[in-house]
Design brief:
heterodimer, A: Rossmann fold, seven-stranded mixed beta sheet, B: six-stranded antiparallel beta sheet, four-stranded antiparallel beta sheet, 7 helices, globular
């Protein structure tokens, strides 16, 4: 099957918003406003069939129909009532619009399958990749497009980054997007594809697989429409980049909900899980795991082995983290090399017991962290580093965070920080994460994230 | 969709070099007794009207000697009549030595096609739900990972030698499921794992 080209949808040079409205309560108004707020600098047109001659909306000229625009439109965002969507889409096709996003609801999700089929056949007739209906659409902070009809005061927009997020559901999609905006890693693309009448997850994965701005893909799925094609793209994509997936509909109750929700054909969860495992997806069980994994994959390089070093300024936290690591069969604490042990013995104060986990003691300052990290990051017996920095201790302060950031940039090994605490900790977390150092707030989260990192790259690098 | 007759199911397995336990249809107590030399054997009533043979008391295990076999045959026959299971057949099977019981099976998923399953078998399938699932066709590595994924992996593969054997069996079953388009479901349960061999004791194939 032919791959649909989604490039004009995500990197449009010209955009028309059909159903743009003066009424601030209307979806068409919010979308237009968001385009302006996001600073989109391509050509922007507002379309409203009742527009007066020379009418303006938020400083944008309003035209009556898409055919009135002289330049070719890369992306039409359609926010008109469902019954007239086919007519509008037909006009777009005739006007040679390259791609369309239908945000309007009122299709298969409420039983209007015929109307949806009509939409799909128009999209196919004009070979015009059409996203939706019943979706939030797309966002790309680089090209500054934002078809979301949710105002920015309600839903914060993430910064520019390398994680692309694909969501069938609009509501879950916007929730996770809001959470991503609070994370240190940023967003490459957001694609909410709703009922998938034309463009579906297979097309989206094919596009993101080749997208150089996307390093990590995060996916929220309810059901897949083309299982065989999905397997084909799955085989290829996970050999290129990690795909973290959260699948809804684990229980039969959940599946029933998926049906009434996006009219998805939520299949049997175990079958999905089998496919994800077999083809190297990173499976997450809930939203928080999804974010934990996205964070580690976004910044960290492939680990060359399964041996972990723990450096801590709190004994208890070191033990808890060791427990979390040992819960997996795959990860182990590495034994420091003789050179490392000798050098640590010389440089660490007497109260530091030289072994892994390395407890630097509560008075450890940035210098002690720095010395330990310098030695351990060069140790050939260590493949990944967990640094526990409890900022409640006397020695830890902003200089500690700065030292960790410094070593992160020079170590070349996956490294993650465990810092548990309230506002003072939170401040340092933001510091570290904005410098590309992933910070976690529970031993379990950091251990499972490193485990997924290890497992994924083992899958990716194996030859068969 | 229907349950395939035992001999047909067995011949499909034969085609893929999946060996099932020696068995024979028997129509009389004498035939059963002849098959039962040497014993022990099992006798089972097969009928489209009784999908759960053991639950309905249609299986008698560990029979040896003419009198025991004859009595069991007659008892099964009258039970089949009483339960109105006609048309039915009675099959005699050699008893397999005991070992670890696993289930190997397949089903057709509307999205992804044929799926292959292995799990801790016998009575534990539903209790522990310890199984691994993959889409067909699988690779040898998939087979190894399926085994490794099971919580009961160490129990099932306690003889190091059985890992390769079970992987071979999984690959053969995957190939059967992939090539036999008409088969919608398959149960090999239990497959009894021994030191260097296995016995497939029961087969259910649905078209």
């Amino acid at each position: 099957m032919k791959t649909l080209n989604l490039e004009p949808m995500l990197k449009p040079k010209s955009v028309a918003i059909i159903g743009a409205s003066k009424d601030p309560e209307k979806v068409g108004h919010v979308i237009l406003e968001n385009y302006i707020n996001a600073g989109y600098d391509g050509s922007l047109y507002a379309i409203n069939k009742n527009a007066a001659p020379n009418e303006e909306m938020l400083g944008v000229n309003v035209l009556r129909k898409i055919g009135d625009i002289r330049e070719r439109i890369d992306l039409a965002v359609i926010a008109v009532p469902a019954p007239i969507v086919p007519m509008v889409l037909e006009e777009c096709g005739k006007a040679k619009v390259r791609t369309a996003v239908v945000v309007s609801g009122g299709f298969a999700e409420i039983g209007e399958t015929e109307l949806q089929d009509k939409l799909a056949s128009i999209a196919r007739k004009y070979n015009m990749p059409t996203l939706g209906p019943n979706c939030l659409g797309v966002m790309d902070p680089r090209s500054r497009i934002d078809t979301l009809f949710l105002p920015t005061y309600k839903l914060s927009r993430p910064q520019v980054g390398n994680v692309s997020f694909v969501s069938q559901s609009g509501a879950v999609g916007s929730t996770i997007l809001d959470l991503i905006s609070g994370e240190g890693f940023g967003l490459s693309k957001f694609i909410s594809y709703g009922n998938a009448a034309h463009v579906d997850e297979v097309d989206i994965l094919n596009y993101l697989m080749e997208d150089d701005e996307t390093k990590v893909i995060v996916m929220y799925l309810e059901g897949i429409k083309r299982g065989k094609e999905f397997i084909e793209v799955a085989k290829k994509i996970t050999k290129k980049k990690p795909v973290i997936v959260l699948k809804a509909g684990r229980t039969s109750e959940g599946m029933a909900a998926a049906h009434s929700h996006t009219a998805a054909l939520a299949g049997n969860y175990e079958a999905y899980e089998a496919v994800f495992r077999q083809f190297g997806f990173v499976i997450s069980e809930d939203i928080s795991e999804l974010l934990h994994y996205a964070k580690i994959f976004s910044t960290e390089p492939p680990p060359l082995g399964n041996k972990i070093a723990i450096i801590t300024n709190g004994g208890g936290a070191g033990v808890l983290t060791t427990d979390a690591i040992s819960a997996s069969k795959e990860l182990v604490l590495g034994e420091f090399s003789k050179d490392t042990i000798l050098a640590l013995g010389k440089t660490m104060p007497k109260l530091v017991n030289v072994r892994n986990p390395l407890d630097l003691a509560g008075d450890a300052d940035y210098k002690r962290y720095g010395t330990a990290l310098d030695l351990i990051s060069k140790d050939p017996n260590i493949n990944m580093i967990i640094v526990i920095a409890l900022f409640q201790t006397p020695g830890a302060d902003s200089k500690t965070a700065a030292a960790l950031i410094h070593f992160k940039q020079s170590s070349g090994k996956p490294m993650a920080v465990l810092s548990i605490g309230a506002s003072y900790t939170e401040m340092h977390k933001i510091m570290m994460e904005s410098s590309g150092l992933p910070v976690y707030d529970s031993p379990k989260a950091i251990a499972s994230s490193l485990l997924k990192l290890r497992e994924y790259y083992q899958y990716k690098n194996r030859k068969d | 969709m229907g349950l395939l007759e035992y001999s047909k199911a067995k011949s499909i397995l034969d085609k893929y070099k999946i060996k099932s336990i020696e068995s024979e249809y028997v129509t009389s107590a004498e035939e059963a007794a002849r098959f039962g030399k040497p014993g022990p054997i099992a006798l089972k009533v097969l009928s489209g009207k009784a999908l759960h043979k053991s639950k309905s008391g249609l299986v008698t295990l560990g029979l040896s000697g003419e009198s025991e076999i004859t009595a069991a045959f007659n008892a099964l026959q009258s039970k089949a009549l009483k339960l109105n299971l006609a048309p039915y057949t009675i099959i005699a099977q050699k008893m397999a030595p005991s070992g670890i019981e696993v289930i190997i099976g397949g089903r057709t998923d509307p999205q992804f096609g044929k799926l292959l399953l292995i799990g801790l078998g016998g009575i534990y399938v539903e209790a522990f739900r310890d199984f691994a699932l993959r889409v067909c066709p699988i690779t040898r590595r998939d087979a190894e990972e399926m085994l490794a994924q099971l919580k009961s992996a160490e129990v099932i593969t306690q003889h190091g030698t059985s890992i390769d054997m079970i992987c071979d069996l999984l690959l053969k079953t995957s190939s059967l499921l992939t090539k036999e388009k008409n088969i919608s479901e398959l149960d090999l349960n239990p497959v009894i794992i021994h030191h260097r061999s296995y016995d497939i004791v029961d087969i259910r194939v649905l078209e």
